[in-house]
Here is the input.
Amino acid sequence: MKLRDMETPMVLGYALHRDTLTPIRKYVDLSREGDYGCDPIGDGMYRMVPSGDIVDYDEMRRRLAK
Here is the structure.
């Protein structure tokens, strides 16, 4: 199957635009309030970006869903 024939072309975990086969970029709005990302630190805990708070999985999902 060719990439252009796939519903959502994917290569190495990156979603591609069907027409150009270039990666689909998702931009982060840095001007909004609150956290916009996280880094796993092990033991089911995450360091939130940019606040630096250490939170569990449920809190991480709650903050990123805003």
